[in-house]
Amino acid sequence: MVVSMVAVAAPSRVKIQGKVTDEQDQPIEFATVRIGGTAIGTSTGLDGTYQLSTAYSDTIKVHVACIGFKEVTRTLIEPQGDVTLNVRLMDNSNVLGELEVTEYRKETSTMGKISIDELKRQPDVSGNGVESLITTMAGVNSSNEMSSQYSVRGGTFDENSVYLNGVEVYRPQLISSGQQEGLSIINPDMVGAIGFSTGGFSAEYSDKMSSVLDITYRQPEAFEGSVSASLMGGSIALGQSSKKFSQLHGVRYKSNSSLLSSMETRGEYDPNFFDYQTNLIFSPSSRFKVSFLGNIAINNYKFTPQDRTTNFGTSTDAKQFKVYFDGHEKDKFETYFGALSLQYFPSKSTVFTLLGSGYLTNELVSYDISGEYWLDQAGTGEVGGELGVGRYMEHARNRLKASVMQLALRGTTGVNGHSIAYGLSIAGEKIMDRTSEWEKRDSAGYSLPHDPNLVKVIYSLSSHHDVSSTRLSMFAMDTYKLQTGLGYLSINGGLRLSYWSFNKEWLLSPRISLGLVPDQNPRWTFRFATGLYYQSPFYKEYRMPVVDVDGNTNIVLNTNIKSQRSLQFIAGSDYTFRALNRPFKLTAEAYYKALSNIIPYEIDNLKLVYSGLNETNGFAAGLDFKLYGQFVPGSDSWISFSLMKTQETLNGVKVPRPSDQRYSFALYFTDYFPKWPKLKFSLRGIFSDGLPVTAPRSSRDKGYFRTPAYKRVDIGLSYALLSPLEQGATRRGFLRHIKSAWIGLDCFNLLDISNVSSYYWVTDVNEIQYAVPNYLTRRQLNVRLSVEF
């Protein structure tokens, strides 16, 4: 706090001005500054500054408050003239000199904040720390530990938008299994802040129906870095900062061949995933800031299968599926991404941003794999007791190249307590698709489908397209926070307008959300949001498979495709309380989404096969609960539980959507051992309902069944070789450069449960189809080391 006084001749009034910041010296907008005992008050602007005037008094008390921060009172003794009063507010989650949480921050918007403290030491089999953490949140489901993809409240993987430093990023299109996926675009070592919304998000975010993940990379304060290594790869992050320039670089490498070797299909796994990212910021003056975000990702997956033995069925009807393989698979996914932004601050309450970004992807999926299989009644020991014997051959040469070039202009202006945001963007898309895949199958001595005159394949797919299109979007929204007779009220309302040249469709998306912290009981927070959301189709969604007279499937692009639509209603509340002298927060939300113009799809592992037509309507409704708190002092944990029902009308039949997980329970728990304070324990557990699945090239209206429930527990132990330093403490010698050093041991899939990712379908001699489960990874150990300096 800095107080300076300039005397004036007539001390009839006092002008007070200054800036309100948080613990990281970041400005706090919409903080309330008021004069005690009067009705005089104001709110801080976007840059945290304020200004007010009051009558002279020998003692003036200034109260500064903001939701989520501790209120501060400053007393001015005999102030005269102009007074500068700068105030730093402390987060409610911190107490000076202690590592103790006293209360959790109030969330009055639909965009929640997620702590980054648990990213680096959680047991994470995929290496994608942010997404792994998100899948334990209420309303979020994932049934594949090797993937960074997730579904939110009954939506598809494609309905989730991801932003890096305000730029929307994309995922590869041809990935069909977790083995291929590799590293996600988000580097956990570079993350500074995480915002996540499971619905009801504001108009600044793009046309997606389910969720928004908003990632901001941190800005280093000085020279710093981190190094980590494990049995599955490693990473390096280096950062440096000066008065006008800062840079942050991250390199990651992953090879999870040891993990994949625990799967039932044995063979030579050779996955290599590499990623480099950089975040550069240059501030030539107080009015200008130039930023650059760059990413290069090269993911290679090579696999030569040898054999596989799968036991399935029940105790009274056990079966065994045995396959001997020949051939190999070679996949490559290259991604290049860059974003350059220029920010201009013409005043303390206004900022303009000019942003240009480019995204390129080059994807290749190539395999030729043949196999001979036997389907037996397990345990009979009889000769000639096979239920099915056959051969198959699978072939694919699929290549996709895509580019998205975008230019955007955005602005934010603060006026009388209102924060008005607006923006305009134009994006050009180019896609080249060359798909050729087929499968030949011989079952019980006959080629399927059987034709005495011809040898036919059971499945073939061909696509040859080049597409160019333009997307235009604009938005305007207003955020207003005020103190009312009921309590602290936050209002956000906005409109989003979009156009797509491919189908010449205009979309208008109104969105509004309210948040209230009542004065009578400030432990409660209430939220409500509603809006009309659209899912603007990307390439996979408007590919329409058409079967010709010979049974071959060709892809036709549907130029009459319309955006899927979701009318959402979300109501929720938080309640903060203390138990066992520790803080807790209980959150509950109810939602209903009326869905129309739905493009039906079926799911196979991570592959979504869309019909390419707006054929159905439906709904998704559910309840989400989350208990968040410190079950042990100084360590955050949470429990989440979700109930959901989805439904759509497919060819006149009411069926659940493919993402219909009716229940889900997730637990993230951390603990310190009292006698060994350097030893930390982490547990991540998920128990969720199975998904509806169908036979290949069929649909749920003709019949479906559910996969077994997904059950998985991962645990991790971390030991501090060098504990993080307390404030003011130092080390001697070379160790003075090291912030912390940890060694850890993880046990993935502690209970060694065989979870099902998808099915391989086999026909026996009686023309009965059997769904042979494809299992995910089994129990695996991992050792890791991380050092921060």
Low-confidence stretches: 1-10, 93-102
Rg to the nearest angstrom?
A: 29 Å
Counting DSSP H or I runs of 4 or more residues, the number of helices is: 3
Give the class from helix and strand content and strand pairing.
mainly beta
Shape: globular
What composes the largest sheet? 22 strands, antiparallel, barrel
Question: What is the typical, i.e. mean, pLDDT?
Answer: 84
Which range best describes the helical content: under 10%, 10-25%, 25-40%, 40-55%, 55-70% or over 70%? under 10%
Set down the secondary structure blueprint:
Blueprint: E1 3-6, E2 13-21, E3 32-35, E4 41-43, E5 49-55, E6 59-65, E7 72-77, E8 81-85, E9 87-88, E10 112-114, H1 129-134, E11 140-141, E12 151-152, E13 160-164, E14 167-169, H2 178-181, E15 191-197, E16 211-217, E17 224-230, E18 233-241, E19 245-254, H3 257-260, E20 265-285, E21 288-313, E22 318-347, E23 350-377, E24 386-415, E25 418-443, E26 446-448, E27 459-483, E28 487-500, E29 505-518, E30 524-535, E31 543-547, E32 553-557, E33 564-579, E34 582-598, E35 601-604, E36 607-610, E37 616-632, E38 635-650, E39 653-655, E40 663-673, E41 676-688, E42 692-693, E43 705-706, E44 710-722, E45 740-748, E46 756-763, E47 769-775, E48 780-788
Parallel strand pairs: 2-8, 2-9, 13-16, 27-32
Antiparallel strand pairs: 1-8, 2-5, 3-4, 3-6, 6-7, 10-15, 11-12, 13-14, 15-16, 17-18, 17-48, 18-19, 19-20, 20-21, 21-22, 22-23, 23-24, 24-25, 25-26, 25-27, 27-28, 28-29, 29-30, 30-33, 31-32, 33-34, 34-37, 35-36, 37-38, 38-39, 38-40, 40-41, 41-44, 42-43, 44-45, 45-48, 46-47
